[in-house]
């Protein structure tokens, strides 16, 4: 009787040891995917510039940079500065983000959280109107893209 | 006493068996980080970067071009940086502890590194504006860009 109790106790101890070993293995292997660092703050200038022949009038207007990349959750600050001779704006279509209308030489800053992944167009939201000095004939091509990627592996 | 002892030992065995079964289940369904992913080979990104100048409204803006670099963790980046501007500039990627040599007008340098940790990393001009030495320009704080390294 006492012998069988010892056997049962021994089996219990062995089983427990195996369970503990397996638990430790599981815990250590589950930590393998290294999450990337937390949300970052992307603080950038966004220029509105005009380009044309040296000494001549600007013929094309563009945003610099023309592509922004952020990870989902990152905070983005854009210091928009209008260096051209016309009034321009800046909006990210589908993101509910826009700057104030800016005359030449004016600037505005916007901050938003890139909370939705995808590819979004940004553009000038002031239609071309030569009578008021609003934007320029190449209004339709003042475009850029915001690319919001998933930052960490699922 | 013996009966209570038997019951206690039976309970211990039962608990041990339940623990074993649970741990086997947990071990069998543990997450395998790389196994289910399609294997990919690290790439080498061979890039050039320049100090770009934009004039208008009586001022000249200086910016790193391109402004955003994207790589996957493990990729190698070979970055040739040129300074066609008339002032000195120097690129540093903070967080990666990398920098070019001081880029005098017309000079260039290249840095090569493995993007071995993921995250968002600022790069900027590390020469504060100093008109006396021709270092950088009044818009020095705006000479910024970002390197994004994904998993």
CATH superfamily of the largest domain in chain B: Cupredoxins -  blue copper proteins
Helix content of chain A: 10-25%
Order of helices and strands of chain A: HEEEEEEEEE
- Total E-strand runs of chain A: 9
Descriptive notes:
Chain A contains 1 helix and 9 strands. By secondary structure, chain A is of the alpha+beta class. Chain A has a 5-stranded mixed sheet, with no helix packed on it. A 4-stranded mixed sheet of chain A has the order 2-1-4-7, with no helix packed on it. Chain B has 151 residues and is of the alpha+beta class. Chain B folds into 2 domains: 1-30; 44-150, Immunoglobulin-like. Chain B has one helix at residues 2-28; strands at 44-56, 59-65, 68-72, 76-82, 91-93, 98-99, 108-114, 119-125, 144-150. The mean pLDDT of chain B is 91. At the A-B interface, helix 1, strand 1, strand 3 and strand 4 of A face helix 1, strand 1, strand 2 and strand 9 of B.
Describe what is shown at a glance.
Chain A has one helix at residues 2-30; strands at 41-51, 60-64, 67-71, 75-82, 91-92, 97-98, 107-113, 118-123, 143-149. Chain A is of the alpha+beta class. Chain A folds into 2 domains: 1-32; 41-149, Cupredoxins -  blue copper proteins (Immunoglobulin-like, Sandwich), CATH 2.60.40.
